[in-house]
Fold this sequence. Notes:
The structure holds 2 protein chains of 2 kinds. Chain A is mostly beta strands. Chain A has helices spanning 6-11, 15-18, 73-79, and strands at 2-3, 25-34, 43-49, 55-62, 90-91, 99-107, 116-122, 128-136, 152-158.
Amino acid sequence: MKNRFGKLALTTAIAASMLPALAAARPVTLTTTLKNYGGGGAYLVLYVTDAKGVYQGTLWMAGTHGKFYRYLKQWFRATRGNLAEVNGITGASVGSGRSFSIKLDLSDALFDAGYKLHIDAAAENFRESPSDVVVPLTKAGAGKPVRGRAFVKSFTYSM
Amino acid sequence: MLRQLHKYPGIIAAALVVFLALSGVILSVLPAIQRAGVPPVPAGGVDVATLAGKVAANFPGLEHISRTPSGKIVAFYYKNDQPMAALVDPATGKEVAPYDRSSFEQWMKSLHRSLFLGDKGRITAAIGAAAMLILALSGLQMTARRMGGWRKLLSRSRGTRMQRLHVDLARFAVLGLTLSSVTGIYITLATFGVISDGMASPPIFPTSVDGGPTMPVDHVEALRKIDISQLRELIFPYPGDPTDVYTLATATGDGYIDQATGKMLSWQEHGFSQRLYETIYMLHTGKGLWWLGLLLGLASLTVPMMAWTGIVMWWKARKARPRIKANHGAQVADTVILVGSEGGSTWGFARTLHDALTKAGHKVHTAPMNSLKPGYRKARNMFILAATYGNGEAPRSGRNFLTRLEAFNGKPDFKVAVLGFGDRQFPQFCQFARDVDATLAERGWDRLVEVDFIDRQSTQEFNRWGRNVARALDEDIVLEHVPVIPRTHVLTLISRNDYGAEVQAPTSILRFAIPRASLLARITGRAMPKFEAGDLVGIIPPGSNVPRYYSLASSAKDGMLEICVKKHPGGHCSGYLHELKPGDTIQAFVRPNPDFRPARGKAPVILIGAGTGIGPLAGFIRGNSKARPMHLYFGGRDPKSDFLYRTELEKWLEEKRLARLNTAFSRVAERSYVQDRIRQDAEALRELIANGAQILVCGGRDMANGVMEAFEQVLAPTGMEPATLKAQGRYAEDVY
Lengths: 159, 736
C-alpha cells in the first residue's frame, strides 16, 4: 500500500483532505488492463485534474526512463516534465495485453467533487494517446470498468 | 594479455553474443524488405500542408501522420472510437492498405535489445555488445600479430582449417561487428540517460495560443514550406481542445503550430547530440540505410561460426598442452620457462623442468615462447626450450618470439639459458635455438649456462643439462624426464604392398583400419582425431618410448590410415613395421601438420616426391575429387621394382584427379632424377606458377635441396625465388 502525499497534497484546496491523518481516506485499487496492441511496453501516467481540466497531481507513472515522458503529452504539458512530480511513484512500463494494479490511499474529498482521473499513454513506434482514459471520480462509478481510446482495454477503480 | 582478453569474453559471453548476432541478423533484413510496397511520391514533391489536407479529407478522426524511415506515409486515426492505421498514397491521400505494424518486428526487437527482461535485459545485451567489441578489437590485434604486422593483415591465413576459417571470417566481419557493437552500446547508454540523445527537452510548449477556430490543415502556412521527405510526424490537436496545437517533427527539428493561425509558435532545431544519436541509430538498425543493414547482418551471420571455431580451438589447445601444476603468473614468478614447440614433445621437457624447480622452492611461470612479455618483474632466471621446425625455422609456439623480443624493455636483470631440441641428422640441427641464443647475446642478455642441444629427445642429455643448470644455480635440482606420449590408439594392419626389394630399397605401403569409436569416446575426445593426408602419425615401436613419425598418405575420409615406409638398415621402427602381417596391431597417435597440404582454391598444385615421399602426395591426389590440376613428379630407382602407387596413379590419371605424371628413375639406362625433370619442364612450370600454383615437396633432405636448386634455376628468368614462394606459403616441404 502506498500513501499519496506530494504535490497533490500540498498545493491544492483538497490538500488537507488528502492527508490520511487529517481526513477520511480510503484505500483505492486502480486496475488498468492494456489492449493487445502488439508493441513494446507502454508508458502510462495516471493523474488528476479538476472539473476545468486543470492539473492537480500525479498518482502513478508506469515507465522509468524520464526521456520518454515527453510522449505523455498532456501530462508533460501540465507539469513541464518535472520529474519531481513522479518522484517515488514510478514503476515499470506495462506490456501489451498486460494489466497492472496499484493501491493508494485517496481522500474522500476527491470523489463526487468534479475531479477527473486521466491516463496518458504512449508506446515506442505507436501513437501517443493523451487522455486515453478520462473518468470522473465518483463513489457510484467505483468498480465500473471504463474503456480507453488507443491503449487501455479497461480501467477500474474500486474501493 | 591480449590472448586472455580474447579468450575469456569469448568463452563466457559466447552464447550471449551469438544470440545478439542472430537476432540482429533477422532484424537486419527488415529495412530492405520494408522498402517494398512504398507508394511513390509524385514528381516535384509534395509539401506537408497539401499532404495533410488530403489525408485529413480521407480520414475523419485523423490523429497523426507519420513517415517511416523506409518512406511510408501512415495515417493514424479513430473510427467509431477504434484506433486505426492506414498506409496512404502521398499523391492522393487515400488508403492504399491497412497499416499493420509487424508485431514480429516488435517482438524480435524487444528480444534483441532486452531479452524481454526490461532494463536488466538491456544491460545484459549491452554487456554482450561490449564483449563483442573486446573480441573484435583484441582479435584484430592478434591477427595482425600472427600475420607479422598490420600491413600484412590481409595476407593469406595459415594454420589448421579451423584457424583459417576463424581468421578469414573475422577479417570479413570485424568492421561490421565493431560498428554494430559500438552503436549498440551507445544506444543503450542513451536509453539510460548516461549519454544525451538530445530528446529529453522538447521545444517549450507555447504559454498562450490564439484560441480561435481551427484552420483547415492545408492552409497552415508553417507546413507549406516543408517537403514530405523531411516529415517525421505531424500530430493533430486533441479534438475539442482549443488550447492544443499541431506538434511537428521533421528531420531537422521539432515545433508547435497554432491551430487557429497556422503560425509556428515555437521551433527547436535538433541539437548536435540528437543528430549524432539519430545517425548512430541509423547505423545500428539500417533503418533508412537498408544496404548497410544487410551488410551488418551478413557480418553478424559469421558470429555463430566464429564462436564455435574459437571455442573448439581453445579447447584443443588446452588439451594439447600438458597441464602444468603450480604455474605462477608472469609477473610474480622468479623463474620463467618459455617453450617453442611444434608438436608438443618439448612441453613434456618443460614440465619436468618446471616441476623440479618448483620442488626446489621456486615460483615458476611456464608459457609458450610466443607469449614473451615486455618484462618480468620478479624473474631471476629464464629458460628457453626451443625445438626447430623444418629447415631451421621456428616451431609453431615460437614463431613470433623474435618479433616480440623487439618490444622487450631493455636488458633484463635475469639470466637466460637456451636449450635446443632437434635431430642431428638434419643439417640445420637446432638452428632456431642457435638463432635465439645469438639474438639474445647480441642484445646483451647474460647467460646462466651456455646454449645446449638435445638430440632426438634424449632423456640422458636432458638430465645432463639439468646437472649443469643445478651447478650454475648452486641448487639441488634433479631432472628426471619421463617422456609423455600422447594418448595412443590401436591400429590393425589391413594390407601391405611391397616394392623395391630388387633395388635394395624395400618399401611397403601399409594400410591400417581406423578403430571404431563409441559415441561416448567421440564426445569425450578419446576417439582417434580426424586427420588429413600430409598429417603425421607417431608410431611407438615396442620397447621404445620415443615415437617415430610418418607422413600420412590418406585422410580419415578415405576410411583407412595409410603410410609408406622404407626399411632402413638397422632402423628400429621401420624394421618393426616391415615385420607386420595383416591382423597385427600397432600403437599410434596422429599429429596435425597443417602447413603441408594443398591450399584451398582451384589453383594448380605441383607435387614433387621421391621414394616414400610420394605417400602424402598420393593422399592429396586421392582426395582431389574436384579434378583441380595436380602435377606429380615422382622419382624412384627402377620402374620395374619401386614405382610406388603405379596402378593407383594410372587410375587417378583416368579419373582426372591427377593431371600429369612425370617420373624419373635412377637405376635404368637413361638415369635421371626429379630435379632433371623439373629443369626440362621449366617453361610449363613457370606458367603454372604464374597461374598461382603451389609447390609441395616431400622426400629426403638431399632431394629437397636439389629440387629447391632446380626451382631457383627455373624461376630465375621471372625474378622470383623459391624463398618468396615459401614466405607466401606456396612452397612447402616435408623432409626427413
